[in-house]
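Support reply, case 0932

Customer input (verbatim):
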Amino acid sequence: MKFFNHKFLMILALLVVLTGIGGCKKFLDVVPNDAPSLESAFSNRSVMEKFLRTCYSHLPDPTDPFYYPAYFTSWDEFDVRRDSRSNNSIAGLIAQGLQNSNAPYQDYWSGTGGGHPMYVALRDCNIFLENAHIPRDIDETERTRWISEVKFLKAYYHFFLLQLYGPIILVKENHPVSAKGEDFWDYREPVDSCVNYIVQLIDEALPGLPPTLPDPTTEQGRISQVIALAVKAKVLATAASPLFNGNTDYAGWKDNRGVQLISSVYDPAKWQRAATAIKEAIDAAEGNGYHLYQFNKYSGGAGTYAMSDSLVQLMTIRKAITESVDKNPGVIWSTQQQFADGKGGSTGASFNFGVLGNMLKTLFPAMYSQDQTSYVGYLTASWQMAELFYSNNGVPINEDRFFDYANRYKPRRATINDNVGAYIPTGEVTASMHFFREPRFYADLGFDRGYFELATTTIDGGATFGVYLKSRPGEMSGAPSCYAPKKIIAFETSCSKGLANTTYTASNYQFPLLRLSDLYLLYSEALNEVKGQPDGEVYQWIDKVRAAAGLNGVVQSWQIASNNPNAPATKDGMRRIIQRERLIELAFEGQRFWDVRRWKRANEFWTLQPTTWSLTATQPDQFYVPVTGTQSRVVTFRDYLYPIRQSDVRVNPNLVQTYGW
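Our regenerated output:
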């Protein structure tokens, strides 16, 4: 796809520089005073740098759950059905099955319905690349780096569109001024062609990028070789996955040239190509000092902590997400903006709780029953997330021979002998399924009568915590919650109880876009697909992630505790184990949506009925009774890819609608 490249677009793009980045920090937070004109757009280094920031400013905001696709659009990770604001938001309407082709929601193709226009982003990248040679007062090494960054951004914006729409229009260059009529009738290109072009752009960008950011403090959010290689790995893993590799659902999807847009023939070579790219990214990351995060209680930033080994393990899991980037070697790429309360919603959001960061503020009153402060339902992690996590033996709870799965809903009182004192106050009663779970369950989820560890809720340096969630009816105003996504709330966040209410101060951090554990699990997945059957190399990479989470390796765990001990020995069994490990390890990080789609498993997860504890009972034996709702979603193959506006199809006879829409 090409766009006009004339004075109007140049001036418009420069106006974006002037007005579009005022809310950003650090690298992106420099707003020029120059008057926009064609002559001044690339007249010197300073203005060129501002245009570079414009190219960065189009990055989708992964902390805005109403407009970013990965959170509230599916109900299987966050369940917002009991909160009218969230359920009737753009994302909530998609989750209700109300996506449409007349006025699509989260329209990242044209920029309507709460989506950002990615083709405008691609146009701006092309304008930059076409004019980056003009300024003379710039060091050539710096010019090369900037060009490489924009080539990567151009690749990433194409990839973002590819994940949502499958075959897309490739914007290799902008239309010349002389273009007319049918010159704009561009085609959606086959997915394989799109992938090859995206990879080509990243490969072109790599030599000009620094291996890592020279100054992460001031350049946070910019692109390095390690980031580019990691994204390349994700692109090729996506291309090798069932959604785009041998998907017969789209066998009839052809354009008016007769070109098949998604191949219905499975190609195992795609997984080998992905495996090679993932290993290259891992080698580059490890060679530049990246490794899985490990919390050190003797250098925790706020001083020395007196935490038990169990609490240190919880901090390792939580702070792998929320630790500051200069102290977190496990985060490869994170948002440039900080993630916390007070960050405004994007795309004209009218909601008071427009971003995930605001869940910090609204969750804490649930820890103080006497406050009776209204609780915001969109904070609720789905019931299925609590069932997802392993037992303390490192296997699914329905497979664990030692876990009383049939009686998991029965109330149980915590005793000293249970050895759960780090997670549940002794003497408190909660559901049996909250006992004997893996560390990530306790690090990731807040649950009724479970501790919510914060730096301000301990008086003995973390040896004990005095505040736990109370979320039964009558203990908070509004709809009670089953579970809350504790993982993404920083330990350093301040919460205290006053005479009238609670006070809260956010702890800011950059939200992770891509972690090293993601690459480890992706490599295990790719190797499992490449090999005839799993072997030690397949197990090695998933076991690294499990070790960091305090679990034994896959083979050992399944042999000791699972009623299906041979599952890791088969390709199909190991595939499901790896996929579940990804869903657990990357929970609440905006990855589940993309993984479920590329695996073609949405019909398993997006159709689940809402479940909660009793909405009226206050006594444990009556409260811990699952209540299943009736509202569920029907999912077909068409829901895996977004539609484009029907009006766009009408004005371009070569543009075919997404298949099924």
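We compared this against your earlier run and they match. Two observations from our side: The domain at 58-98+210-661 is CATH 1.25.40 (Serine Threonine Protein Phosphatase 5, Tetratricopeptide repeat). The beta strands are 331-338, 411-413, 429-431, 445-447, 483-485, 494-497, 502-505, 510-515, 611-612, 627-628. Please reopen the case if you see a mismatch on your end.
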